[in-house]
Amino acid sequence: MLPITRLPLLMGLALLWLALPAAATTERRVALVIGNSSYANAPVLPNTVNDARDMVAALRKVGFEVVDGVDLDKRGMDQAVTRFARLAQDADAAMFYYAGHGLQFNGENYLVPVEARVEDEIGVQYETTRLNDVVTALNFSRGVKIMVLDACRNNPFVTQLAKRQGTRSFSVGTGLAPVARAQGMVIAYATQANDVAADGTGRNSPFTAALVREIDQPGVEVATVFRRVQKSVYDATNGRQTPELSLSLLGDFYLNRAETDSDVWGRIRTSEDSAVYHDFIRRYPTSFFTIDARTRLDLLERRADEVKERDQLAREFAARERALLERVERAERVRQQAATDLAKRQSEASPTIAPPPAARSPASPSAGTVRPVAIPPAREQAERERLAEEVSRRDRELASLETEKKRLADERLLMEQAMAARMGTLTMSVPVQPSLSLDAPTPGPERSLTGRPAAEPAASTIAPVARPQAARAPTTRPSASTCSEILLRAQLGELTAQAKEQLQLCR
After folding, report:
1. How far lies 246's CA from each of 142, 220, 455, in Å?
2. What CA–CA distances, in Å, run from 161 to 74, 106, 239, 362, 422?
3. What pTM, to 2 d.p., does this model score?
4. I want to staple 85 with a disulfide (CB 3.0 to 4.6 A). Which of 17, 137, 158, 191 is the partner?
5. How confident is the model at residue 445 (pLDDT cuts 50, 70, 90)?
6. DSSP secondary-structure letter at 74?
7. For the chain, what are the domain ranges?
8. Integer angstrom CA distances of residue 287 from 260, 281, 328
9. Percent of the chain with pLDDT strictly greater than 70
10. Under CATH, what is the fold of the domain 26-248?
11. DSSP state of 154
């Protein structure tokens, strides 16, 4: 019994084990974003806080967990780097972005907190943050590592250090020094090594403005993102600033994993819901597939109009058929009653005559008795002729209704064939309303005189109209409107065999 009781537990553990890889495939992304602007011992940088905040918004939008800070002092920067290093452990992607003052000293790069007083090499060593400490934090990630430095600003700290360079054995360079490239790392500089980047005159620096814009584009590989940023910054600064990219990735990485216009179109291109095409056009107004979306939308709207027109015609034919059926039923009732009366009168051998006095029973009362009244032969004959004429007239009416029924059925058949041709189908997609089939007698002289026996009732039945048969291959060129619709369907890959034959004639 023990193995049996453990079986459900073992099955549950097995299912949990199978589910672990699926749960582990969820990508974890972390980022550290710092923007320093209000320097105590240097001019305020106008755009760096905006740059940092816009970058935080862009990264969170694409799935990054962001540690952010603006106008951080030395302690604040160290705490932010420490927190980021803990989050980066075993992360699938880690990114660092910095906007503010930075400098290179003895070939090593330093980031400058807002309260730092960088007057000599001691200030560099103890009042700034080493960029290598950030690289160490990035290396805790097991996946892609991205470092973005918009820090090559023209700052006074370099000038102050340069004044002391004559009496000290150290070197101070303009901009930032190249960072040693590690496997799986992307390093992007706002400008080339040993060069100075522009602050910009708008909300953002030229580099960050371009980067935020490109991150918003889905389905673009990270190398392509930074190449586009390079081109945008070069054009925006008239060639005065060119970002630099150092990349060492073994595979592709996408900052924005959202669906592209191509992905969305591949998913919705066969939809019959016009709302999804309206949404696609709104979301991707400049997409290459917007033309196809408008074509598909136009086709659906035309199809919807044709369906409404077809349904309206079907309702009109149904109303006409119901009215015709009511007329048939009324004519059948009147004819049946007239035929019954005529048959009854013809079955009587002679008119009713009162019996002679000798034949009366002695016991019958002699006074106050209602006696049968004799009907004159001429009047009886006139009544039979009237009934025979009524039967004959109703026969002609039923024959006329049968002709009208056939005409209505032919008219409906032509309408269905025309609508089917317009909609590119051989038959209508909705059930056809049943039509009438009148079982009226063929009028003749003998039927007019003798009528129909009362036991033979007239019938009015309903039978479905024959559907249009499959059309043969067209031998004449279709109309211009038909050719236009066939070409629209061809663009969307929705051609039937018949439409392909018509397409050959349209060429």
Report:
1. 19, 18, 103
2. 19, 11, 29, 160, 83
3. 0.58
4. 137
5. very low
6. H
7. 26-248, 473-507
8. 10, 8, 61
9. 68
10. Rossmann fold (3.40.50)
11. -
